[in-house]
Write a structure and sequence with these properties.
single chain, 152 residues, alpha+beta, 40% strand
Amino acid sequence: MEDRTQQEQVSPAVQKRVQDSFNLQGLMSHLGAQITHIGPGRVHIVLPARREVTQQHGYVHAGATSAIADTAGGYAALTLFDEDSEVLTVEYKINLLAPAAGNHLEAIGTVLKPGRTLTVCQLEVYGVQNDGSRKLVANGQQTLIRVNRPAE
């Protein structure tokens, strides 16, 4: 049974705000990551497995794995706040459960508890093979703080 939250969409304005913000992230661009789903309290980010993001054994590096997980959670939280808000990570913990292998990694950030100030997210990262098979390679939890958007 497919999770219905994967099919829920946010408004076009929220989708644009999240995508525009993501496009400003130099690290995500450098890694080659892309947002593939923006739903209410849920964001998916895909990272193609390329030599430039691997460690010495050929697996995707833990730094790249945790970076896409952190970013997916942050944008999942941002989908629930108004346009005058931003989020910053307060802390996150990630467990690396298996070598990050596959055609690409998919990070999924899901809001567990939204709040006026602090929001808690679940982080999952899957290694996805060419045939579509998936293996959970990392999971974690994240706390974010809502801040006012800086004046331009």
